[in-house]
Design a protein that fits this description.
This protein has twelve helices and seven strands. The protein has 471 residues and is mainly alpha-helical. The strands form three sheets. A three-stranded antiparallel β-sheet has the order 2-1-7. Strands 3-4 form a two-stranded antiparallel sheet. A two-stranded antiparallel ribbon has the order 5-6. The two termini are 37 Å apart. Bound molecules: fe (ii) ion (2 copies).
């Protein structure tokens, strides 16, 4: 572990002068990007942040006050004990690669660049949110997520620099040049060009969109290209905090919505200055249906190639499965048939890899939703939230171009349009939610539309001074 190097790392950067120089050349460009596209304001404030300082399962994080531009973005790979075999696909049982196999070079580069691009994109999407944080605790958590997405970019850029030579360096530069939502140079995946301009959307993003990231990273952590497997494995340890932020953030809004509804004589949380459960449901519908697109086509030859070549496995491939070639067997999928009816089709397993990963994701979202419903129930309110069907509101894949209700039933386009304002956020809903986004930056205080967390960060109480503002 070297923390004294210009770039903290456990990849022995000091002994590879050429790589070190390339990364040191990229570093100022990264900082320029951070100052231009990272959090707007707050760059001189001291934030109580955790920094990765080692890769031990316990104790890898160090908490201290730090100004964001001084954050120590480092390169960490989960260490590997001994050699490892490729765990699935056509090369199953062959020794894992430590160099990029020539024939897989372009497909592997595409996988890494696509993952890498989402990291700075989310920071860009969230850059205005600090100004309207509902509490100092939440402000700190936003910045924690932001600096760690920055570190994830570093993790991917390291792979590009070390293993892809000149192409990799060019890709690393391009990652700092694309901009979320830019008409000419947008980010690669559409969800990362949508705005995240209110805090309920931030919590939905970290709940649903970041959770896609978890499953993509987990699938890549099975990779036969060992440096990618080890980089993504360590990223997952940071990612779990982002998911925690999203899941508990939504839970706190749900709790407050239920409390305010109980308080109001007409059961109207909006009349009490909060967000009502119906509006929360619309945000869930919007963000979930946008996030499920990220898993890619239901029937996909790309996904089959990724699996066959040993680059991207299934979720917990080693622990969950005993058969790792996926050459036999089928996945029974509901596909749109004649007259808009759904029929079952058996898809060869390898071609259904995206859908298999999406299943894991959907089950995880449903688990979280059950927790939220438990919170509502405890207030005595008889309302339930739901995760919509994966067919609802899709613009890519086999369900795009057809209309489905949130319960997954095929419906006519006209029916969908008459229900749109009930199922998805309207401009008025967005206007209303935005109107509640007033900053609460004072220690121990919190906005009216969200409940305080059960506990603070790093064993500290909620009213701890998580941000020391420069005057
Ligand atoms: Fe990330
Ligand atoms: Fe994340």
């Amino acid at each position: 572990m070297s923390l004294t190097d210009s770039i903290p790392n456990n990849v022995d950067l000091g002994s590879d002068k050429k790589l070190l120089r390339a990364l040191e050349k990229w570093q100022p460009d990264f900082i320029n990007w951070w100052m231009e596209m990272g959090p707007d304001g707050f760059q001189n404030d001291e934030i109580y942040l955790r920094t990765a300082v080692s890769v031990d399962a316990k104790g890898w994080a160090n908490y201290e006050y730090v100004k964001m531009p001084d954050y120590r973005w480092g390169i960490f790979l989960t260490p590997r004990e001994g050699e490892r075999d490729i765990g699935f696909g056509d090369h199953s049982g062959v020794k894992a690669w430590n160099e990029v196999p020539g024939e897989l070079r372009s497909i592997l580069r595409r996988i890494i660049v696509t993952q890498a691009d989402t990291e700075p994109a989310s920071v860009e999407q969230q850059r205005q949110l600090g100004k309207t944080a509902p509490s100092m605790y939440d402000l700190r958590n936003l910045f924690q997520v932001n600096v760690e997405e920055g570190r994830h970019l570093w993790a991917m850029v390291h792979l590009l620099h070390q293993y892809f030579g000149r192409d990799g360096r060019e890709e690393a530069e391009a990652l700092l040049q694309r901009r979320s939502g830019h008409p000419d140079t947008p980010r690669i995946l559409q969800t990362f060009n949508d705005k995240t301009d209110d805090w309920m959307s931030f919590f939905m993003f970290t709940m649903f969109t970041d959770r896609d990231g978890k499953y993509q990273l987990a699938a890549l952590s099975e990779s036969g290209f060992d440096p990618l497997a080890r980089a993504t494995q360590f990223m997952l340890t940071e990612e779990s905090f982002h998911l925690f932020t999203g899941e508990t953030g939504v839970e706190r809004i749900v709790q407050r919505a239920a409390e305010l509804a109980k308080l109001d004589p007409n059961g109207d949380a909006r009349a009490q200055g909060g967000i009502d459960l119906g509006t929360i449901q619309k945000w869930i519908n919007f963000w979930f249906s946008s996030a499920v697109e990220l898993f890619g086509g239901e029937i996909s030859s790309n996904a089959a190639d990724y699996f066959a070549t040993g680059l991207k496995g299934r979720f917990r491939e080693r622990e969950k499965y005993t058969e790792h070639t996926a050459l036999d067997g089928v996945y029974s999928m509901m596909v749109p048939g004649e007259l808009g009816r759904l029929t079952t089709r058996d898809v060869p397993l390898r071609n259904a890899m995206n859908e298999i990963l999406r299943d894991e994701y959907v089950a995880d979202c449903e688990r979280a939703c059950r927790k939220w419903n438990h919170v509502i129930k405890k207030t005595g309110l008889d309302v339930e939230l739901y995760i919509p069907s994966r067919r609802f509101n899709r613009s890519m894949g086999i369900y795009a171009g057809q209309s489905f209700a949130p319960n997954g039933e095929p419906i006519s386009k006209e029916h969908f349009e008459t229900m749109r304002a009930k199922w998805l956020p309207t401009p008025e809903d967005r206007e209303y939610v935005r109107s509640l986004m007033k900053p609460v930056h004072e220690r121990g205080k919190i906005a009216n539309w969200i409940a305080p967390p059960k506990q603070g960060v790093d064993g500290k109480p909620f009213d701890w001074e998580y941000v020391r503002f420069a005057q």
